[in-house]
Write a structure and sequence with these properties.
With about 140 residues, the chain is mainly alpha-helical. Helices cover about 60% and strands about 10% of the residues. The protein has a domain of about 80 residues. The two termini are about 40 Å apart.
């Protein structure tokens, strides 16, 4: 790959990664705030109807109500997962572009290993980290 094309791709991926990460953090902050509102309202509620939060955005009023079970078909549920997926994918593409295709992987002053060995260690670390995290979640150690 030509050096200038790789540098422009690197720049575009970095900005996309940062932008997706900001969206992911913002969405997480919003849902954490929303869940806290429901917990607070449930503690203070004396009536039997489920609590609801009223919000305003762009001139529209929105009533958000917490449900204990899904009362609609699954295709009507809107999942907020794309920000996390785009952040992860952009990060993995940056990892490949900068370290595996680029020259930023091996520092011969630290360890004199071959590039394929460095790539194998990197991929093994990602897979091993995922396995350890998955095991911890299944045991209930991570939340």
């Amino acid at each position: 790959m030509d050096f200038s094309i790789r540098e422009w791709l690197n720049l575009a991926l970095r900005w996309f990664h940062v932008f997706a990460g900001i969206m992911w953090v913002g969405q997480t902050y919003y849902f954490t705030w929303l869940d806290h509102q429901f917990v607070r309202m449930e503690k203070n509620a004396a009536e039997l109807k489920p609590p609801e939060v009223w919000m305003v955005h762009s001139g529209g009023f929105y009533s958000v109500e917490k449900k204990k079970s899904l009362g609609v078909s699954a295709n009507q549920v809107r999942w907020f997962r794309w920000e996390a997926l785009m952040t992860w994918l952009a990060g993995m593409m940056l990892l490949i572009l900068v370290y595996y295709w680029g020259s930023g992987l091996i520092d011969t002053d630290v360890a004199d290993i071959s590039k394929p060995m460095g790539i194998a260690i990197g991929i093994g670390s990602v897979v091993g980290g995922w396995l350890i995290y998955d095991f911890a979640v299944r045991l209930g150690l991570a939340k």
